[in-house]
Amino acid sequence: MSNILVTGAAGFIGSWTCEALLSRGDKVIGLDNFNSYYDVNLKKDRVKKFKDKCKIYVCDIADNQSLQRVFKQNKIHKVCHLAAQAGVRYSLTHPHAYQTANLLGTLNLLEACKHHHIKSFIYASSSSVYGGNTKVPFSVDDPVEKPISLYAATKRSNELMAYTYHHLYGMHCTGLRFFTVYGPWGRPDMALFKFTKSILSGKPIDVYNHGKMQRDFTYITDIVQGILSSLDKNYPCQIFNLGNSHTVNLMYFIKCIEKELGQKAKIKFLPIQPGDVPKTNADIKKSTKMLGFKPKIQIEQGIENFMAWYKDYYKIIS
Q1: What CATH homologous superfamily does 3-182+217-245+279-297 map to?
Q2: Is the pTM of this model over 0.90?
Q3: At a CB cut-off of 8 Å and minimum separation 6, what does 293 contact?
Q4: In sequence order, what are the beta bridge partners of 256?
Q5: Is-catalytic flag, 252?
Q6: Residues 6+ apart with CB under 8 A from 214
Q7: Which entry of 90, 151, 219, 310 is annotated as an active-site residue?
Q8: 3-state helix, strand, coil in the chain (%, to 5)
Q9: What are 250-295's pLDDT values in tens digits?
Q10: Is the dihedral of CA 185, 188, 189, 190 positive or negative?
Q11: Are 92 and 274 in contact (CB under 8 A)?
Q12: For residues 70 and 76, what is the distance between their CA atoms, to the nearest angstrom?
């Protein structure tokens, strides 16, 4: 049993990770700033499921003084760093939020780990670091030095920062490049959530690149399995892709949503947005070999699961 600090504990991936760790007997110290990037009530409701089983701190990782208090008050064995300012498009209009949360916040955590002699640091990266790479599937051995969004640049910076702390201080750092994570309790700014809400309200959905997009949608429980394995393996310094390894065409994705809702979407086709890429696809051979990572949930089942949660959470009668 380990004492694990989970940053972003009220977030989509963070809340699922906290529950999984607690269910297997680990002690969790959760941390989140509960900001208003999206519905704070959703974040609070996620945490309600497990807050009685662990400590939850309202703390911003960019506030080093507050963060240091959390480390001083708890015996922490491992850090699972999932807090971030997410979103490629939001980074076009709110760049400083990424500097604060993703760069300064991660630096503060690495420094805290150094001072408190914590050797295990697992952190969230993103498939966005692959930028405009045209070779697919994306491999962790591919060059990732040309990000096409500030969000991607901050995530690549996190990888470089972690490597530096591994090199200088012997910290074990594992970076996880997530590929389009979806499922129950997901983020309202992501396509599945946005499309569902708009279709149910009869509003048109914005479909970029005229629908010619492909994504490696990865179900939340598969992602969490990869996170827990990374914590357990505790490799000295590695980066892994966590993706489904199969691409889904955006128009098929929409058809699956329509099927579950029993309602057709009104589609507004638009050009591709700055920072977006037309296709993502994960090469997970390394993750399978070293983490035992084997995604199980395919898109049809994943969307069905999400819809069951969405209708229940928002009390929608079919």
Answers
A1: NAD(P)-binding Rossmann-like Domain (3.40.50.720)
A2: yes
A3: 222, 225, 226, 229, 240, 242, 284, 287
A4: none
A5: no
A6: 247, 248, 249, 250, 278, 279, 280, 281
A7: 151
A8: 45, 20, 35
A9: 999 999 999 999 999 999 999 988 888 889 999 999 999 999 999 9
A10: positive
A11: yes
A12: 9
